Amino acid sequence: MLQTWKRSILWATALLVVLAAGSVAWAGQPVFHGIVSQGYMNSTEYNYLAPTVDGSFAFNEFLLNVSAPVSDNLRVGAQLMSRNLGSSGNENVVLDWAYGDYRWRDWLGLRVGKVKTPFGLYNQTRDVDMIRNSILLPQAVYTESMRNVMNGFEGGSIYGSFEIGDANSFEYDAFVGTVDVERDVWPVSELTQLILANVYGSALPLTGYRSETKAVYGGALRWNTMVEGLRFGASWFHGELSGIGTFSSPLGPIDPEFHMDATPWYVLSAEYTTDRLLLAYEFNRAFVDMELKGLVVPTGLTPPLPTTTTMDLDLKDRRGGWYGQAAWQWNDTFQIGGIFAMYYPDYTVREGDGFDYKQRDIALTLRADVTDNWLLKIEGHAMQGVGDVESTLNDGIALTEEDWYLFIAKSTFYF
What pTM did the predictor assign? Predict the structure, then answer.
């Protein structure tokens, strides 16, 4: 029933978009925008987000969107997207967003369809490369491992803005819906693989996967202060996800069930902008409880595997982190920027032995707007720690080097 309801919303929204794009009798002409980008990544010591140690061009995006006003208050739009970042996306064309947006008053509007999640300052525009300085959003807050959960939802939201006095205004956005999760998303892949690798001695291939989200909901509040260019924000996300992953093991196929409950995941934000300067700071914490049930493990020697047992595991994810960012528009062509970020897989443990309890990221970016529709970026990251390095992406090798580096270059065309 839930899946039927979701699909009906998406198809109805898509139909409205097609009608809007093809009908000159409506309130205005459709507007088209597109982005095509290609990047290159290279890192020392560890693969990060993609097979980057040997250099990787598996980093590209293609977006095409259309929007049109149906009336003075109603607008519809949709965006197709193809992306590739390591094993994520795989250049499959997907419906990134598609919704109808009815703005009844400044203080109350309604969006229904597949909608971007209001999370932090930049999640809703994370794929719009030309409006920011950095290539990668700070992974301490906008982690790629949770992109498929946090990127968008299928459902509805209410939003609006209102003024208090002559110089202060507030914006709010509250949402509820569900999400479709790809098979390689955390925790299906990384978390389960880590557990299985500890049990079996190596990672096991994921051969099948299905999931179901019970619900996601949350909201965002932003305060545009009396100081021009200064705003503060807070956003909150709650999600429940269940599923079954099938893994190929020496025992044959095993099918552990998992359940994830994020209660809550929040971000606190601050930003100051002028014509040339950007300063931003964001802090996030996650409180995620997880269960793995029906995990078949060997109790004998390997090989052979004479006996097995089935166990259930309760796990907690308390990740968190923060970043500070600055960017300066040097002239009409060049912009420079930097980010200092700290990420902790367990925010309650911010000091300790070793270097897997944290990941510090110092990044510098140079952006060049070559023409009105073409930009180039180069970016360097000096990393310390491996708190955000996926062991499965590194074939389970020992993470023995604390300091490592990442270089990224990217070219983007847009219209």
Answer: 0.86
